[in-house]
Write the structure tokens for this entry.
Amino acid sequence: MSIRFVKYCLLLVLFASFSSVKAQYNEFGIMLGGSTYKGELSEHTFNTDFVHPAFGAFYRHNWDRRWSWKIELNYGKISGDDAYGSTAYQRDRNLSFESTILELSPQVEFNFLPYETGRPDYPFTPYLFTGISVFTFNPKAYLGNELYELQPLGTEGQGINGTKKYKRTAIAIPIGGGVKINVGRFGIGIEVGARRSYSDYIDDVSTVYPDPALLQAANGTAAVLLSNRSFLANDTNFVQPPFNFKQRGDSNTPDWYVFGGVTIYFRLTSMLKDICKPFKFRRY
């Protein structure tokens, strides 16, 4: 390998670095779309039976035309219902829930093609993103016409069987992608991101049925009725064996949730302008 070739490569790297700095800019945008979830009460990550409206906002800093980081705030509703289950066990279990998700998520993005908002010579690109999310949730379910918060009721014996009640704030890893498209001075994107959460209680279902007598004494009748809603448990035609400590969920499979939709964003800062006007619109 010649010294001349090495110098040539170093010059290319320096030029690329300089160009990247020149292409740095910031954006603000909003997201309008939907949210859904996968867990014990919904079998599929992109289950259309449980899609709800969602919205969000984000700030993005573009390091160059390939890499950027952003921080976004998203809000949506998720739900699940055993009535839509594919097995007799799920349908008999008869559990359901709903919850809102509030998420704060710093992320890193990679564009497959060079892209810059407001530059028609960089019209579009597919992209991927990942990062970390901190989110809050609060599963609820109806008993009659009244909606109950499930976490305080300890429906799987939390607080009375030696375990603590689960926290309603957790961490998740977002993995997703989409397409960015230049539209004049604005940009439009379409993206979908699944979040692998580090909680199995987004739906309040994870382990086993508790002892109903202990649950009744600690948290009342509503806790017992919302813990075990199985049709078999309420069948008075014949005596059922006790449900105590029988499987209610699967603690080995953490819950997922999904945000997806259309993003609309605009540029907050323009490119660094050249002092010499004829070079103002040069290609970097």
